[in-house]
């Protein structure tokens, strides 16, 4: 488990993503918005995302560090599981549950459970199982029992579904920061790709659509298996 420079305080929000860049693609605006509210926000990548056609582990590590800085995240780590072979088995569950007990996030963000990418599907199942295991007593896992209060699921890129989200978050004010963070992954989204329309154009258009659904410039959809409670209606757009 490659967890270093642990945060001084428990995280408010933790994204658990199969690969570096998944969090930025689906939640970059959400994470940037949370930081403007002084939330403690982190990302735990399950794999290093390599190999890819134009990337290397060293390139991907530099790109991830740049994207992390662009979003102003409080913490980022990597669980060191195998890319392309991610499996929600007992060993991976134990490792992730141990990380949750150490990081103690209040809210989790996880991949939506239906996708064409097997790693995304496995990551979603792994989060659900590890969240439960993290609260177990009488175990040799590190840390104290912990159970994140909520899991919100984000939508990835590999299956063109139009799932009805539980809510869409207005990320208009922070969308430029999202695009800046995604552009840090030059080997993945810029090098060797068409200049027009670019991959970044596609991301912007998709976010523009979700913004349109709620009457704002840009939005990011999220889904929750459980009802989402509100303390009031003042913040609804």
Short structural summary:
This protein has about 240 residues and is an alpha/beta fold. The chain has helices at about 20-35, 55-70, 90-105, 120-135, 175-185, 185-190, 200-215, and strands spanning about 15, 40-45, 75-80, 105-110, 150-155, 165-170, 220-225.
Give short descriptive properties of this protein.
single chain; 237 residues; alpha/beta; Rossmann fold; seven-stranded mixed sheet; 7 helices; globular
List the secondary-structure elements in sequence, H or E: EHEHEHEHEEHHHE
Q: Describe the global form.
A: globular
Q: How large is the count of helical segments? A: 7
Mean pLDDT over the residues: 96
Compute the number of strand runs.
Answer: 7
What is the CATH top level name? Answer: Alpha Beta
**Which CATH architecture is right?**
3-Layer(aba) Sandwich
Q: Domain count, please report it.
A: 1
Could you tell me how far the N terminus lies from the C terminus, measured between alpha carbons in angstroms? 41 Å
Approximately how much beta-strand content do the residues carry?
5-15%
Strand order of the largest sheet: 3-2-1-4-5-7-6
* Structural Rg: 17 Å
| Biggest sheet details | 7 strands, mixed
Unreliable spans are none
Alpha-beta content class: alpha/beta
Tell me about this structure.
By secondary structure, this protein is an alpha/beta fold. It has one domain (13-223): 3-Layer(aba) Sandwich (Rossmann fold). Helix content is 38%, strand content 14%. The chain contains seven helices and seven strands. A seven-stranded mixed sheet has the order 3-2-1-4-5-7-6, sandwiched between helices. Helix 1 links the parallel strand 1 and strand 2 (41-45). The protein is globular, with a radius of gyration of 17 Å. The protein starts with 12 loop residues before the first strand and ends in a 14-residue tail after the last strand.
